[in-house]
Amino acid sequence: MRSATDEPSVTSEPVLVFDRIDANRRNTVLLLALSALFVLPAAAYLTQYLILWLAAVILPLSTRVGDPRRLIPVAIGVTVFGGIFFPYLIYLRSASHLLRISGARPLEAGEGTELRRLVENLCIGSGLPVPQIRILDSPVPNALSTGLSPKDATVVVTRGLLESLDRRELEGVLAQELCQVGNNDVLLKSVLATLLGIMLAPFRAAGRLFRAAGGAGPSVRPVALGCLYVAAAYVVFGVGAMLVMAAVLGGLVGWIGVTSLLLFLGTPLICLMLYRAVSREREFLADANAVLLTRNPGALVRALETVGAGIGRGPPVDPAIADLFFVDPRPTGSGVGRRLLSSHPPMRERIELLRRMGEPY
Amino acid sequence: MSNDPYLFGAVGLLLVVLLMSLLLYNRLVRGRERTREAWSGIDVQLRRRANLVPMLVDTVKGYARHERSVFEEVTRERGRLMEATGAADRADANGRLSRALVRLLAVAEAYPQLRASEPFVELMEDLSDTEEKIAFARHFYNRNVASFNARIGSFPHFVVARTFGFRPFEFFRSTRDELEAPRVDLLAVAKGDHRGPP
């Protein structure tokens, strides 16, 4: 229950409400710039590669491109397209795409009056526009939110959540999701996931090829091995070609190529860890914000326990949307690696922090 | 003269100060507008509550005609809420109306038929939803007020706020302790479930 006093006494952190959304937006931009620092060289490398291959095809065919330097504007064009425009397109589609993957359906008429009311009230309390509400027909209690801005956000709850939580607990979960919406977390996560996806694409492809080479029947194996061979040659040729370019093109362009290749090989892991660390921080932040909104850490703790107990019971969840959930739907182990790479903070820590906020009033 | 470094520095400093005041001023205006917007959130819900009260009185009247003093009290407090201006006064009036409503519900409790009647149950649901909305709207407004007031009282903004006459907002909070009533779960009271808030 809300108390008589409305001062934010639950957390000691000073809260500036109308600054927070602005601050979060700034942080998003900052983090984007930081990721771009890592991602752009890699994207540049990928596109330079493309150009090299194109050149390798075009040069023998046509004598018109006599001087390889003429390819530079094209290379820049493709870099801009591949490095900025293409990810932007993916990013625009990501929210609706994620919603489609989740398989959530809109509320039917007359369904979830209580749920709607809770969401509406929480939106009044947080100054957010009322999001779309969807139901995921799964017995496992959990919730997620997507949407690139609070204006077109969607909150999804599973049928299991509605069945297993009481009103206050449900309110806590919804508040947590809405706070993530208000903090623009979905935007942040989508952008980072998109960038990461691009960087990991060649590695994923290689991994798939390895698996195909190992597990496939004899008819597929030579093809897969062939592809792997080409991929390896690609990397080796890439380094060589970059060095040649460095010599031919007077250094700078080629050296950028070599550096970006090295960065490209090393950064996905760094980016992944960066992204996951951000994601964990945002979960903590949203937990705290939710408590500030509902004044009821106890209910949120109970909700976390209930939802946590159901993890791993249901059908597997698409990894693309796993990060968006209230509680990570993938069963997690312990260990340093798992910890560094998990998208949610350990359940025990979340509960511990909420408990420390106390069961006030 | 034209390249006097001191003159140059002074003009530059002046420009920087002007630009900063402009930015600070804009931020203050934005904060003020947002807080006003948050107030309108409370206002809407208070009106909604005030509109529900006569309906509730009429419904209860149909069963308990002789409890006139309670009806009059509720109607009077509703009128006061409509007339009250200023955040603190309205919070006071709202607290008084809440207390009057609790008395009205105590009357209603003696009439099981009334409690079971559909319009009454619907009204109670609406009313309790409105109470909750008021609580949330108040939370949002008060947090905005807290940060706006803190801002105009602290350094760089303080200067600009003084110059342009920005005033702190009143909290939506009763000035009198006894009116700062604990939120009553109307639905529970109406159902005769007296556990109260946990």
Describe this structure in words.
The complex is a heterodimer of chains A (361) and B (198). Chain A is mostly helical. Chain A has twelve helices and four strands, in the order ααβαβββααααααααα. In chain A, a hairpin with a 7-residue loop joins β3 (143-146) and β4 (154-158). The N and C termini of chain A lie close together (8 Å). Chain B has 198 residues and is mostly helical. Chain B has one domain: de novo design (two linked rop proteins). Chain B is built from seven helices and no strands. Chain B has helices at 5-61, 68-83, 87-108, 112-116, 118-152, 155-164, 186-190. Chain B is rod-shaped and about 90 Å long. Classes of the chains: A mainly alpha (361), B mainly alpha (198). The A-B interface holds A 1-2, 4-8, 15-19, 117, 120-122, 124-127, 293 and B 30-31, 34-35, 37-38, 41, 45, 129, 132-133, 135-140, 142-144, 146-148, 150-151, 171, 173, 180-183, 185, 197-198.
Mean pLDDT of chain A: 72
Uncertain residue segments of chain A? 1-18
- Average pLDDT reading of chain B: 83
Distance between the termini of chain B: 77 Å
Shape of chain B: rod-shaped
Q: What class do helices, strands and sheet pairing of chain B give?
A: mainly alpha
CATH T-level topology of chain B: de novo design (two linked rop proteins)
Task: Count the domains of chain B.
Answer: 1
Compressed to H and E, one letter per element, the order of chain B equals HHHHHHH
Total of helices of chain A: 12
Distance between the termini of chain A: 8 Å
Rounded Rg of chain B: 25 Å
Looking at the structure, what is the overall shape of chain A? elongated
Count the E strands of chain A: 4
DSSP strand (E) fraction of chain B? under 5%
Determine the CATH superfamily of chain B: LemA-like domain
CATH class annotation of chain B: Mainly Alpha
Note the main sheet of chain A. 4 strands, mixed
Strand order of the largest sheet of chain A: 1-2-4-3
The oligomeric state is heterodimer
What is the CA-based Rg of chain A, rounded? 24 Å
